[in-house]
UniProtKB/TrEMBL annotation:
Alphabetical list of Pfam families matching this protein: Mann_GBD_bact
Protein name: Mannanase galactose-binding domain-containing protein
Highest taxon listed in the record's lineage: Bacteria
Record's compositionally biased regions (Polar residues): 40-52
Sequence ranges assigned to domain Mannanase galactose-binding in this UniProt record: 371-505
Amino acid sequence: MGKMPGVPASGTPRVPLQIVKVVAVIALFLATTAISSAATVGTPNTPSQVSTEAGEHRKGNYVPPTLHMPSQVSPFLFGTGLELTSTTDPFITNDTVRALMQQAHMTIIRMPTRIGANTSPQIPIETEMEAARKIRDMGAVPLVNLRGPADPNVLQDDLQMVNGLNEIFGHKPVYYELGNESDLGGFDKVAYTDKWNIVIPELKNAALNGKFIGPVNFQYNDDYLRYFLQNANPRPDAVSWHEYSCDTSGIYTTPPDPASTCIAKLDRWNVHFNDARVAMHDVLGGTTEIPIIISEYNYDPHVPAFNNDSQFINEWTSKAIETLAKNNIFAAMQHSVLSLTPLINNNQLTIQGTVLKSEYEKLIKRGGGFSFEDGETDGWQGDKAQVSVQNSTTIARDGIHSLQVDLTNPSAKPSISVSGSAIANLRQFPHLTAQVYGPAGTTAITAQLFVQDSLGLVLYSKSVTLTAQSWNLLSFTVPPTLGQTSKVGIKFSSTDQTASTVYVDAVSWI
């Protein structure tokens, strides 16, 4: 959300540069007394929101492993953030803004919480709920930036938001971040995690289907993340931080960063993502990972100088999306809809909005698939009484959700399948893959993909014996001789009648 350098708490708006110093000094005196060490805005002691090497585990010239574009890219890479600075915010009042957001394929929308103490401007809870209803009506997923440690009534204010959003979204997933850049506001890893351990258990109990995310740092901070992962209770459903690559107007950098620096520094994102996963392995054990969300990103968080430079915006935005996709990032929110480097200006998609639209259509619409992140089964069903399906958050290959498949008797060779418009283009993108998580225990279960055409002809992939408690890749190239696809599915088999549960995720065709 909008950032004014040096001012803590979620929901802080940007203000004209010439009054930044005066407003920031006043705000710091009015802020919660827990923030005792914030520096005056505009001085060299005030952190810039541009990502640096300071928080990295391995600094300097460290190069992470070579990356490749995955077969399925998360659609939640195409998200954006709202400002919601008034009851007449254009997102609420302007139908064209929302229509353009849909044209740009914004699948996840971050909204601030601007109720409670120590936030300015404040808006009524009714305005928050109206914005949430608009997100719902667009078919997008909400990521709600809740109040954080700077709010002395954080639990009360956040419960008000959660209870209201329960009424709007029901049991559909809602993602919640605790606070916004609390580290920049003076809350260290201990203070933030302590607040998480007090507030999140209550919110988690109240939310119908809430996914809770932290620590929402202003840049990647390995030490902060490791402490949070080690001590947060409950464990976060995902982790988040922000990524900005340069200072193009010289607010913190003399001389200002040129366009080439903005593009080159995108390579540091690879280091941050790799470091985060190493931290997860070290702290959580083995190869355990949880999703990464970059809940704000763009090239300059202050006064962007290159918004009208078509060549630069195309190159920077395309490389940013490629970097996020190759690192299997679960979700990312361009900042923002209407400010800084906006998605929309004068009721038209901006250069960056147009590039994001094009990238979505290149990466997401090149085929199809199922991620189950909507909390639904998406039309999948069992073909026999011996198998049933439901959406699950027990384990996931990509993201947080998967399809849980309960096999009451795998020796009956049950299968699950999906049909209809969701698979209509499979013939044009015949390389079909799926991930299946093998059950615990000694029961040997095999799985194979199958495709059925409109004449009833069924073709099967090679059978794969599932490795227990691991993700197993199934793959199949559908031959061009097959007729129009009417059904896609997975068949299971075993010589053992013991009931077992497997999980399916990341079904895709390219």
